[in-house]
Amino acid sequence: MDLEKFYTRVFDWIIIFGPRLLLGLIVLFLGLWIVKVITKWISGRMHKRNVDATAKPFLISLLGVVLRILLILAVMQILGMEMTLFTALVGAFGVAAGLALSGTLQNFASGIIILLVKPFSVGDNIITQGLEGTVTSIRIFHTLVTTFDNRSVIVPNSKLSNEVIINISREGTRRLDIEIKFTNAVDIGTVRKIINAAIDKCTNILSSPERRIGVASIENDGYKLGINVWVNAHGFQDTKLAIQEMIVEDLKKSEIKLPGL
User: Fold this and answer.
1) Kind of pairing, strands 125-128 and 152-156?
2) Out of 29, 48, 220, 229, which residue is the most buried by the measure of CB atoms under 10 Å away?
3) Does residue 23 surpass a pLDDT of 90?
4) Other CB atoms closer than 10 Å to residue 40's CB: what's the count?
5) Distance between CA atoms of 72 and 124, rounded to whole angstroms?
6) How many CB atoms lie under 10 A from the CB of residue 176?
7) Contact 211/227 with Cβ under 8 angstroms?
8) In Å, what is the CA distance from 260 to each residue of 180, 181, 183, 221?
9) With contact defined as beta carbons under 8 Å apart, do 176 and 231 qualify?
10) What is the pTM of this model?
């Protein structure tokens, strides 16, 4: 008799709540597919309208999160769950999560600040946390930086909004500084002519601002010649290696010895 009552109750529950449960599952899976389609479509529209590459990944991620939350709320309504109870649970969970995830929320807020203030953009070369690299993506909680030796570094956004960041490519140009030591027997005028000729052969050197070549410091056994030239920010290291090689080769051809060589 008890077994019959149990089966009766199960059958009644299936009849009453079964359609809601089935409809909720259908809406959930269909909604997830629609969210995916919408985010993909929005991403395509942003690409066509040349939306800032810095904001695009952040906005797409944020849109996906918001749509999924709305979808879950819609499924709960279909299942007939009491929203007042849900609100109380969310409030309690929110307090606990806020305490546990304070760092994560700070990263989220910092991500918004980065997008608004724009201390750097995707493609900029920056120095942060003792690392130098190119910003490849700015996301909700972190920023992806690829170092020049091809390491992917994930930096929390809070570190980027609260600490010093050196943007070495924003201005478009950089000054390249080189110091070379010579003995007192080496004539400064001769060395300056050789270095100027070597610089003229390097196509990556900018003509403006003008280059500077002069004595940077005087020592007991010689002096250091300082060389300041302006180059494009992107490709700075390649230009530095190339011009140093040209200067050393031309000095050797002129039989001017460098200390230690």
Assistant:
1) unpaired
2) 229
3) no
4) 11
5) 38
6) 20
7) yes
8) 12, 10, 11, 13
9) yes
10) 0.59
